[in-house]
C-alpha cells in the first residue's frame, strides 16, 4: 500500500526571498547603502559584474508578485527587511519611507490572506555600520536591537513570525573567513568574533521582542548533515568538526549557552573566550528554529583544507545541482530528526529548500519546463513528511525561491525560482515547478503520491 502524504492540519505552505536578491532600487526613497550594494559595485567581486540595482524590481512590482503568490495558493511568504532602508545610517534616524514600503508589502499580503514571515537580517548590513567595524564591533548587537525594536513597534501583530538572522554561518564563513561574500574579509581571527556578535545581536533582538512583541521569534540557520566518508577515527573526527562548525556553532549557544568544543580545535589561538553574561544573552528561549536545507556533505579528513582539515567527497552516483550541491533528500529527514533529538524537539519551519538547475533565459510560449526542480521538490517534501512521521514538530515549508533572483556573488547566473524572471522585460512566468507546488499546496500534500520516482 502506498503511503499517504497528507500533512498535519495547520501546516503552512509558503515561499521565501531576501531583500537584496529581489528588490532592486537599493537607494530609493532615502535608503542608505548596504554592504551588498557596496560589494556588488566593487570591480571583480560579482560574477559578470552583476548587481542588485534592478534585480527583480520587486520594490516596484511587489503587488504583481503577491498576485502570483495568491494564484499559486501560497499561505505564507517569507521575505527579509533591508536594515538600511529603515535606518539609512544603521542606527539613529528612521527613514519613514523605508518603513512605509514594508508596511505596504505586509498590508497587501494580509489583504490576500498570505501570512508574512519577516527576517530582520538577510546579509545586507548597513554600509555605515560596516564603516564602524560591522559585525566585529561589539556595539553592533545594540544597533541590531534598536533596529529590531523599530520594526516590532511598527509591524508586530500584522507580522506574527519573526526571524532575527538568516544563516549566521554563511555570514561569517563567506563574509569574514573566506571572503566570497560581503564584506569580503579573509581572516581567521575575525570570523569567531563576527559569529559571537551575530549571536549577541540575535539575543538583543529576542530581548526587545519579549518587551514589545506578542507572537513568535526565532533564528534561521543552514544545516547540512555531515556523514563520515569511512569509519576511520580520522574521518569521524573530521565529520565532527564539520558538524560543529556549520551545524552547531549557532544552535548550541542558542539552546545550551555554549559553543561546541571543536571550535577551539578548528580556530586554535584565534578562538576567544567570552563572558558568561554574553552566553546568557544568547541563550534566551526562542519560539522556533528556521532550517534552510539544500544538500548534505560526506566528509573526509584532509590536512590541506583550511581551517577545518575536512573535505567533501563527491558522490558520482547522485545528481548535482547547478551550484554543485548533491541532491540528497534523505538528508532533510536526517537533519530534522537530528534537530529534534539534539535540541529537544523545538518547533521547526523549513525556511528554505530548493535548487538551481539550468532553466532557459526566456519562457517558450508561456511555459518553462523544469523537470529536475519538480523532482527535487517532490522528493524533499516526501522527506519532510517522513520527518513528521518520526515525530518532528514541523510547522511549515518555504520553497527557495519564489522568483529567480540575484544569487549573491554568482549574480543572475543561477536560477532558484519556481517563477521564472526574464530580466530584460521583468516578465514573470510560473515554471512547471510552480504549478506542481500549487497542486501540492491545494491538496495539502496528497498529490505527492501521484508520481512514482
Ligand atoms: C542560502 N552553503 O544561502 C541563502 O539564504 C539564500 O539567500 C541563497 O540564495 C540560497 O541559500 C541559495 O544559495 C546559502 O555554502 C549559501 O552551505 C551557501 C550555503 C548555504 C546556503
TrEMBL record:
It comes from the Bacteria. One of its GO terms (biological process) is cellulose catabolic process. NCBIfam families: BGL. Keywords: Carbohydrate metabolism, Cellulose degradation, Glycosidase, Hydrolase, Polysaccharide degradation. SUPFAM superfamilies: (Trans)glycosidases (SSF51445). The active site is at residues 167, 352. This is Beta-glucosidase. It is an enzyme of class 3 (hydrolase). Its EC number is 3.2.1.21. Belongs to the glycosyl hydrolase 1 family. InterPro entries: GH, GH_1_N_CS, Glyco_hydro_1, Glyco_hydro_1_AS, Glyco_hydro_1_beta-glucosidase. It comes from Pseudoxanthomonas dokdonensis.
Amino acid at each position: 500500500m502506498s503511503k499517504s502524504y497528507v500533512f498535519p492540519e495547520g501546516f503552512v505552505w509558503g515561499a521565501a526571498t531576501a531583500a537584496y536578491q529581489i528588490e532592486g532600487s537599493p537607494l530609493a526613497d532615502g535608503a542608505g547603502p548596504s554592504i551588498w550594494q557596496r560589494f556588488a559595485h566593487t570591480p571583480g567581486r560579482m560574477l559578470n559584474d552583476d548587481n542588485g540595482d534592478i534585480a527583480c524590481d520587486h520594490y516596484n512590482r511587489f503587488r504583481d508578485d503577491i498576485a502570483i503568490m495568491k494564484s499559486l495558493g501560497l499561505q505564507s511568504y517569507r521575505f527579509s527587511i533591508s536594515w538600511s532602508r529603515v535606518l539609512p545610517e544603521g542606527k539613529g534616524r528612521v527613514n519613514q519611507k523605508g518603513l512605509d514600503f514594508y508596511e505596504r508589502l505586509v498590508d497587501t499580503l494580509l489583504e490576500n490572506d498570505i501570512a508574512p514571515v519577516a527576517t530582520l537580517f538577510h546579509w545586507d548590513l548597513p554600509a555605515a555600520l560596516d564603516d564602524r567595524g560591522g559585525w566585529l564591533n561589539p556595539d553592533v548587537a545594540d544597533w541590531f536591537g534598536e533596529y529590531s525594536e523599530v520594526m516590532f513597534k511598527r509591524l508586530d501583530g500584522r507580522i506574527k513570525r519573526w526571524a532575527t538572522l538568516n544563516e549566521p554561518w554563511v555570514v561569517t564563513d563567506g563574509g569574514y573567513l573566506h571572503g566570497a561574500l560581503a564584506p569580503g574579509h579573509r581572516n581567521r581571527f575575525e570570523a569567531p568574533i563576527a559569529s559571537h556578535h551575530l549571536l549577541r545581536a540575535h539575543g538583543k533582538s529576542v530581548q526587545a521582542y519579549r518587551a514589545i512583541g506578542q507572537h513568535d521569534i526565532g533564528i534561521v540557520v543552514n544545516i547540512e548533515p555531515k556523514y563520515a566518508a569511512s569509519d576511520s577515527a580520522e574521518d569521524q573526527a573530521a565529520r565532527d568538526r564539520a558538524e560543529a562548525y556549520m551545524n552547531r556553532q549557532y544552535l548550541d549557544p542558542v539552546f545550551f549557552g555554549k559553543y561546541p568544543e571543536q571550535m577551539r580545535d578548528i580556530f586554535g589561538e584565534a578562538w576567544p573566550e567570552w563572558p558568561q553574561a554574553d552566553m546568557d544573552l544568547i541563550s534566551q528561549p526562542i519560539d522556533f528554529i528556521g532550517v534552510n536545507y539544500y544538500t548534505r556533505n560526506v566528509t573526509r579528513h584532509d590536512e590541506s583544507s583550511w581551517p577545518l582539515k575536512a573535505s567533501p567527497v563527491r558522490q558520482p552516483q547522485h545528481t548535482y545541482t547547478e551550484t554543485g550541491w548533491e541532491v540528497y533528500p534523505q538528508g532533510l529527514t536526517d537533519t530534522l530528526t537530528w534537530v529534534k533529538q539534539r535540541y529537544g524537539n523545538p518547533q521547526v519551519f523549513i525556511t528554505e529548500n530548493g535548487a538551481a538547475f539550468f532553466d532557459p533565459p526566456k519562457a517558450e510560449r508561456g511555459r518553462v519546463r523544469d523537470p529536475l526542480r519538480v523532482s527535487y521538490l517532490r522528493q524533499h517534501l516526501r522527506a519532510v513528511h517522513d520527518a513528521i512521521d518520526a515525530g518532528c514538530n514541523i510547522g511549515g515549508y518555504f520553497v527557495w525561491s519564489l522568483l529567480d533572483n540575484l544569487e549573491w556573488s554568482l549574480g543572475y547566473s543561477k536560477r532558484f525560482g519556481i517563477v521564472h524572471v526574464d530580466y530584460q522585460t521583468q516578465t514573470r512566468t510560473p515554471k512547471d515547478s510552480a504549478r506542481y507546488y500549487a497542486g501540492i499546496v491545494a491538496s495539502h500534500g496528497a498529490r505527492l503520491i501521484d508520481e512514482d520516482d
